[in-house]
C-alpha cells in the first residue's frame, strides 16, 4: 500500500546529501545510556566469563567501547558459536536477551562450544533508539569489505581474529511498529525513493540464509521459542514483511549479498531472530526470554546434529 506520508527531511525523490544526513543526526537525542544499562551487566560477568574490548566507536571512544563475552575455558577442539545483539541498537531484547543468555546459560553451553557474545554492536543506536548510526548508515546493511560503518567493521575484525570458522551464528533482532512509522520512511527519504507502507507481523519469526537455509535448524529455533511466545503467522499473501514464508515462522534473505550481520561468518548454522516487542501479548522480559530460547533451541539442535561431546 502506497503512502502519502512525506518524511520531514530532504526533498521527495532526491537522495540525501551531507546536509540532510547532518540534519537527521541533529534531530536525534539520547534517550537511555549504554554506560548505565548495558556496560554494568557486561562487567558483572567478568568473574565467571572472559570480557574483552574489541573496539570503540570514534563518535566517543570512552562512551562507546565495544565488548564481547567469551567462554572462560577456551578449547581449540571445540567449535565456535557466535551470538550478536544490538546490531540495530534500538532493538532492545537483542541486547538484553544476549546478556541474559550469557548470565544464565553460557556456562552450560561452554561445555560444547567456544562461545562469543557481542551483546551491543551499535551502542550509539542503543542510546538514541535508532536503526542507523550517526552517519545515517544501517550497520545491518554494511557487513562487507571496507565497510563505512564502524559498528560493522569492528565486528568483522573480531570475527577475523578467531582461529577457526564459526559453526553457529545467531543474530538477535526485533521487528517493531517504529519500523513502519519511522525507520522505513526515513530509509525511503534517504535513498530518494517512494515509501510503500508495509505490515508488521504480530509474533516471533526467523530469517535464514537463502544460500544455506538449514530448515531443520530454523524449525528447532521456532519450536524452542514457541514455548515462550507466539510465532508470527503468514499474511494473506503467504508472506512476512514482503518475503515468502518458507516454513512456519521462517523467511530467507541472501545474507552476504545484502551485507547483513547474518553473513559476517561462513557458519554452517545461522539464523536471525525477530521478536515483536510491541505485541499486547508480551512483556519486555518475555521478549528477552524469547531471544534466550532461540539461542538454546539452535545450540541444542547443533549439539545433537553434530554429536558434540562435553
TrEMBL record:
GO molecular function: metallocarboxypeptidase activity; zinc ion binding
GO biological process: proteolysis
Domain of life: Bacteria
Peptidase M14 domain residues: 30-310
Family: Belongs to the peptidase M14 family.
Protein name in the entry: Peptidase
Phylogenetic lineage: Bacteria, Pseudomonadati, Pseudomonadota, Gammaproteobacteria, Vibrionales
